[in-house]
Amino acid sequence: MILSTFFGADLLGSASALVVAGLLGVAFGVFLEQAGFGSSRRLTGIFYLQDMAVLKVMMSAIVTAAVGLRVLVAAGLLDLSQVHQLETVLAPQVVGGLLFGVGFVTGGWCPGTALVGAASGRADALAFLAAAGLGSLGFAAAWPALSSFAREGACGVCALPETLGMPAGLVVAAVAAMALGAFVLSERLEARARARASS
Q: Domain residues for 36?
């Protein structure tokens, strides 16, 4: 039996899909707060090489999703055409990633964690969300001038196995190995930071 998805059934805009998305979003926010990611100090620790929790969580999520998808596909339970995959558009995604990084460093939040911080009553998170809203309005106003740039470097859905010409299982194994290396490096950096703080 092939698993069905809201995307595969063309129901992403349905009421049931929105309810499920809302419930998942609330659950995600609760787990973020419990993990300490409702604090901008905790989030920005990665930039000072003191607290690498953000890197560990993100790498864990990537590996879990990659392995989970591969297992479901190999078991014949999932057809990847049933899963929404974002199109790769190189120029705007590179620029957007850089802007996101600058915003993360200067503001101490990303949009998702800022919502968690705002729900916890943190004023800096509210300020960050207000600035993000203004930035979105500015982007919408500038859209006529940016619309052509928004398609610069479009190359469709580009998955790593096809792009690299490697079997999907091997790519997943390489990503998992990279994550393991990142965990080891993170532990060493955190230990060094603790040693400096105690000296």
A: 15-198
